[in-house]
Amino acid sequence: MRVMGVDPGLTRCGLGAVEGRPGAPLSLVSVGVVRTPADDDIGARLVAIEAEIERWLDELKPDAVAVERVFAQHNVRTVMGTAQASAVAIVCAARRGLPVALHTPSEVKAAITGHGNADKKQVGTMVTRLLRLDAMPKPADAADALALAICHVWRGGVQHRLADALARARSAPRPAPVRREDA
């Protein structure tokens, strides 16, 4: 399974893709960051993020996209920018019919490090080890995007297969009901 992770943000939007399956070694496909100037118009910034995400989707052809779930922060402006960048990633994937999963930061940290309160350095260190990289991906947004993709390979793949099985079971023809007659 090839998964593209997106750590949304307006100034820095982390992108990372990994390939693998649960229980097997993972491999790095690509990692990077989309940067937009803080003094640019919001529309121009979102278009730049969209263009880069579209380019990644065209080139990498992932099976799924994992996006960090936006959570409440004290800075409303930061939350809004993160939510807007997140929506762009979701729309780009949905346009292609790709499954999109939203993972919380604590869910990703728990999957990667074993505990949901890990700091960015711990996440980056584990991403480096899990992908057998020579150096930690920088900036942290890049490592976070890879962590999202890894989390989805490990957790989301199972969830996706369960959802597919349930959908098949619901759409399967049902046998006619058996009528019982009381004597």
CATH superfamily: Ribonuclease H-like superfamily/Ribonuclease H
Strand order of the largest sheet: 3-2-1-4-5
Helical fraction equals 40-55%
How would you describe the oligomerization state of the chains in this entry?
Answer: single chain
Helix count, per DSSP? 5
Structural class: alpha/beta
Mean of residue pLDDT? 89
CATH architecture field? 2-Layer Sandwich
Distance between the termini: 57 Å
Cα-based radius of gyration, to the nearest Å: 19 Å
CATH fold category name: Nucleotidyltransferase, domain 5
Show unreliable segments.
Answer: none
Strand residue percentage:
15-25%
Count every beta strand, where a strand is a DSSP E run of 2 or more residues.
5
Number of domains: 1
**Global shape:** globular
Q: What summary fits the major beta sheet?
A: 5 strands, mixed
The helix-strand sequence is EEEHEHEHHH
Pfam families: RuvC
Subcellular location: Cytoplasm
GO cellular component, one term: cytoplasm
Keywords: Cytoplasm, DNA damage, DNA recombination, DNA repair, DNA-binding, Endonuclease, Hydrolase, Magnesium, Metal-binding, Nuclease
Q: How would you describe this protein?
A:
The chain has 183 residues and is of the alpha/beta class. The protein has one domain: Ribonuclease H-like superfamily/Ribonuclease H (Nucleotidyltransferase, domain 5). Helices cover 50% and strands 17% of the residues. It has 5 helices and 5 strands; from the N terminus they run E-E-E-H-E-H-E-H-H-H. It has a 5-stranded mixed beta sheet with strand order 3-2-1-4-5, sandwiched between helices. 37% of the residues are buried. The mean pLDDT is 89.
